[in-house]
Amino acid sequence: MAQRTRKLLPWLLTAISVAAMCGLGFWQLERMIQKQHRLASIAQKQSNGSVSLLTALTNDDPRDITVTFDGEPDTTHLVFLDNQIQDKRVGYDVIVPVRTNAGWVLVNYGWVSAPDMQRTLPTIKIDKGLLSFRGIVSVPGINPLITETNTQSWVFPALVQQIDFADLSQRLNRDLLPYVIQLTTDDVAFVRDFRPVVMSPEKHLGYAVQWFGLAVAAAAIGGFAISKKGRSYE
Q1: Which of 39, 55, 204, 227 stands the most exposed, by the fewest C-beta atoms within 10 Å?
Q2: How far apart are alpha carbons 40 and 207 in whole angstroms?
Q3: For residue 37, with 0-12 CB atoms within 10 Å meaning exposed, 13-18 middle and 19 or more buried, which class applies?
C-alpha cells in the first residue's frame, strides 16, 4: 500500500499543478472578456458626450459617463489618497468633497508628487466658491488587504489608503454619493490621467497563453520525470 501511494503521489501533485495553472489561464480569459465588455460600455457611454451630474445618476450604472456640473468645494476637508504612482514617481491623488445640486460628491482633482519620502503632505491650493467641473464618474475599488483606511489620526487634510465612503461620510458628517468624479480638464497644478481600464484585454490573453503553456510544460516534464523514475526501479 505504501509503495502504491509513493507511485501515485507524484502523479497527483503533477495533476494538481496542471489543474491550477489551467484554472489561472481560464480566469485570465474571463478577465479578458470582462475588459472587452467594459471597454465597449465605456465607448458607448462616452460617445454620447457630457451630461449633467443629475442626469448621469439616473442611469443604472453611471460609471464612465462624462458629466459637467457646478459645485462648491469644501477646501477645509482635503483627502490625500496614498501610494499613487505616476511615471514611476510616488505621490497622492487629491480628493475634495464638493457640494452640488445632486448632493455631496468626492471629486478627484488629480495627482501631485510627494514632497519627500517621509509621507509629508503637499500644500495644495484649491479655489473656493461656486465652480464648474467636468469629469468622469468612477467607482473606486476596495482592496480587502487594507484593514485601516486612514493612516493618521482623523485630522484634515487626511491621508487615506483607499476611499471608504461609509467612513468618510461619518467623519465628514455628510451623506456622500457613492462615486468619485475624476476631473479631465487641464490644470497645471495636477496630473490628470484617469484610465478606467488599466490592463488591456490583450494583456489578459497573453497571461492566459502563458499559464496554459506552463500547464503543458508541467504535464510533459512531470510525466517524463515520473516515467523515467519508474523505469529506474524496474
Answers
A1: 227
A2: 21
A3: exposed
What is the band of 4 on the pLDDT scale with cuts at 50, 70, 90? low
Instruction: Note whether 146 and 164 are within 8 A (CB).
Output: no
Catalogue the E-assigned strands of 51-88: 51-52, 66-73, 79-86
pLDDT grade, residue 233 (50/70/90)? very low
Distance of alpha carbon 56 from alpha carbon 64, whole angstroms: 10
The residue count of the chain comes to 234
Residue type, 142: I
| Cβ pair 63, 139 in contact under 8 A | yes
The per-residue pLDDT for 54 is: 93
What's the CA gap between 93 and 138, in Å, rounded? 14
Q: Dihedrals φ, ψ of 148, to 5°?
A: -120, 115
pLDDT per residue as tens digits for the range 146-204: 655 554 556 889 999 999 999 899 999 999 999 999 999 988 899 998 888 778 889 99
Q: What is the pLDDT of residue 148?
A: 56
Pairing assessment for the beta strands 89-100 and 79-86 based on DSSP bridges: antiparallel
Q: In one letter, which amino acid is 221? A: I
Q: Report the pLDDT averaged over residues 103-126.
A: 89
Rounded Cα–Cα distance for residues 57 and 129 (Å) = 24
pTM: 0.78
Q: Which long-range contacts (CB under 8 A, 24 or more apart) does 174-179 make?
A: 174/97, 174/104, 175/103, 175/104, 176/97, 176/103, 176/104, 176/105, 176/106, 177/57, 177/102, 177/103, 177/104, 177/105, 177/106, 178/139, 179/62, 179/63, 179/105, 179/106, 179/137, 179/138, 179/139
